[in-house]
């Protein structure tokens, strides 16, 4: 009994040597990727100058824009993520939305916003819904923070970078359950970027992560040896 108690105490001490860590990460790059649908041309807007990149659609000629958020998780390394929250701010519309349905998709990023990020996505992490009390200009802004639990997808990432693609639900021209003002052909939804320094940057996108290390080699070896010792002792007493 004393041996089992000692083993438990040493295991607790070894675990406590590697406490959980909390990190708040800002994007290493974020921005807007545009698609000229008729011509099949993709382009990236000026990522360092946009404070409100757009998730948007223009029906004629058909164009679509998506917002990309890239995070560097190299500081997390091989630690196991126990909690992770993606947070971003939807600033508003230009009056063209009666209903907003905004999807957020995760994928393995590369730290750079490029045309390959358009429609990128391994797993959808959430759907943001907002219904306007009125449609047309002027209409009230959205002005809402969006938060999604992304711990599972981050633990399954294959590299140091995590990308998130923000796009309208569905495909052109209807875009799922989004509702538009037919009189307004310019349908823009602003997302605050890292360059947005209003109120000391409270609207910037962020990734808040709590992580713990993988079991250390010393803990694994100690636990294995302890189980073996207990097994032998119980065998002798039998």
Overview in brief:
The chain has 238 residues and is of the alpha+beta class.
Describe this structure in words.
It is a single chain. This protein has 238 residues and is α+β, with helices and mostly antiparallel strands. The protein has three helices and 13 strands. Strands 1, 2, 3, 4, 5, 6, 7, 8, 9, 10, 11, 12 and 13 form a 13-stranded antiparallel beta sheet that branches.
Helix fraction bin: 10-25%
User: How would you name the oligomeric state of the polypeptide chains in this document?
Assistant: single chain
Count of separate DSSP helical elements: 3
Q: What profile does the largest beta sheet have?
A: 13 strands, antiparallel
Mean pLDDT across residues = 86
Shape: globular
Beta strands, count = 13
Structural class: alpha+beta
Question: Which series of helices and strands comes N to C?
Answer: HEEEEEEEEEHEEEEH
- The Cα radius of gyration reads 24 Å
Task: State which percent range the strand residues make up.
Answer: 35-45%
Report, as a whole number of angstroms, the end-to-end distance.
15 Å
The low-confidence runs, each spanning 5 or more residues with pLDDT under 50, are 6-16, 217-223
């Amino acid at each position: 009994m004393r041996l089992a108690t000692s083993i438990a105490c040493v295991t607790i001490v070894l675990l406590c040597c590697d406490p959980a860590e909390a990190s708040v990460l800002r994007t290493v790059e974020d921005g807007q990727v545009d698609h000229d649908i008729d011509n099949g041309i993709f382009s990236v807007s000026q990522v360092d100058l946009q404070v409100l990149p757009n998730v948007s659609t223009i029906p004629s000629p058909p164009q679509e824009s998506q917002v990309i958020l890239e995070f560097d998780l190299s500081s997390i390394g091989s630690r196991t993520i126990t909690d992770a929250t993606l947070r971003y701010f939807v600033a508003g519309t230009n009056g063209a939305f009666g209903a907003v349905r905004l999807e957020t998709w995760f994928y393995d990023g590369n730290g750079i916003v490029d045309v390959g990020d358009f429609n990128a996505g391994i797993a959808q992490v959430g759907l943001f819904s907002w219904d306007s009390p009125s449609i047309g200009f002027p209409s009230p802004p959205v002005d809402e923070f969006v938060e999604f639990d992304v711990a599972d997808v981050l633990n399954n990432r294959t590299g140091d970078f995590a990308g998130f693609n923000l796009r309208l639900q569905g495909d052109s021209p209807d875009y799922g359950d989004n509702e538009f003002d037919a009189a307004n052909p310019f349908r823009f939804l602003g997302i605050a970027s890292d360059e947005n320094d209003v109120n000391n940057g409270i609207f910037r996108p962020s990734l808040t992560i709590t992580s713990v290390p993988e079991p250390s080699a010393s803990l694994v070896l100690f636990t294995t040896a302890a189980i073996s010792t207990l097994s032998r002792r119980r065998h002798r007493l039998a």
